[in-house]
Amino acid sequence: MIPFRFPGALIACFAVCLIMAGCSAAPVQSASNDTVSTIQQDSSAGAAQTPQAQSDNTQPEMILSSSGINGGVIADKYGMRGSQKDGSTPTLSIPISIENAPEDAVCFALRMIDSDSQPLSGFEWVHWTAVDIMTPNLPENASIDMASEMVQGVNDFDAIGYGGPTPPDKPHTYIITVYALDGETGLQNGFTKDAFDPAISGHVLAEAQIEGVY
Q1: Edge-first strand listing for the sheet containing 73-74
Q2: Among 41, 73, 189, 195, which lies 20 to 30 A Cα-Cα from 25?
Q3: Topology at the third CATH level for domain 63-213
Q4: 191 CB-near residues (< 8 Å, 6+ apart)
Q5: Cα separation, 180 vs 98, whole angstroms
Q6: Who contacts 107 (Cβ-Cβ below 8 Å, separation ≥6)?
Q7: Eight-class DSSP state of 154
């Protein structure tokens, strides 16, 4: 019997088809890898930018300090053991310094209360309220010397401005809170203590506290 032989042309054609099939499959795999690589690069770039953006937008915490409070104790001259008084009410206001206030703050408001007066008077005694303060630094006696540069309310001594600590029974803790505001309150000198909170409500950008014992 004569063996069957494939024609040479048919073998060559079959080989060419195999080569072309292999070449057409390669780009599909390559294209898929390129896509994954691009997504990973975009994701990585986004992750690297996020912490930087957060860092740029971080506002330092507003800080309140006073040279009249040392070791948590209010100096004698700012209270009943001081020499500056109106009758029996101390009037030498304590110095206050504000740091890291928001850049868009227009003015400040402050309130000083006796947190230990509740058992004696039935409420927290208000020693000082002031609004529309245009400076971050209030020196000693600012309640009198800078009265024209702020608006002050009536304290619980029934006087406008600062009334210093006069604890009747034991050392009390006094809390001074300062608020950075986005605008002026519109209050007038002699406003009541009850008008303070509504006047600043919705306008507080930041606040800070400091305490002292007297």
Answers
A1: 69-70, 73-74, 204-213, 173-181, 107-114, 125-133, 151-152
A2: 41
A3: Phosphatidylethanolamine-binding Protein (3.90.280)
A4: 129, 131, 151, 153, 154, 199
A5: 9
A6: 131, 132, 133, 134, 181, 183, 184
A7: B
Interacting residues of 131 by C-beta distance below 8 A, sequence separation 6+: 107, 109, 150, 151, 153, 181, 184, 185, 187, 191, 196, 199, 200
Q: What percent of the chain lies above the pLDDT cut of 90? A: 72
Which of the pair, 37 or 148, is modelled with greater confidence? 148
Mean pLDDT of 83-103: 98
**For all residues of the chain together, what is the average pLDDT?**
81
- Residue 53 corresponds to which tokens in the numbers above? 């953006």
Share of the chain above pLDDT 70, in %: 73
- What CA–CA distance (Å, rounded) separates 89 from 157? 7
Q: Where are the domains of the chain?
A: 1-57, 63-213
- pLDDT for 39-52, tens place per residue? 233 333 333 333 33
User: 186, exposed or middle or buried, with CB in 10 Å at 0-12, 13-18, 19+?
Assistant: exposed
Question: Which pLDDT value is given to residue 57?
Answer: 63
- Cβ within 8 Å of residue 17, ≥6 positions away: none
CA gap 7, 9 in Å, rounded: 5
List the beta bridge partners of residue 179. 109, 207
Residue 187's contacts (CB-CB under 8 Å, 6 or more residues apart) are 131, 132, 151, 153, 195, 199
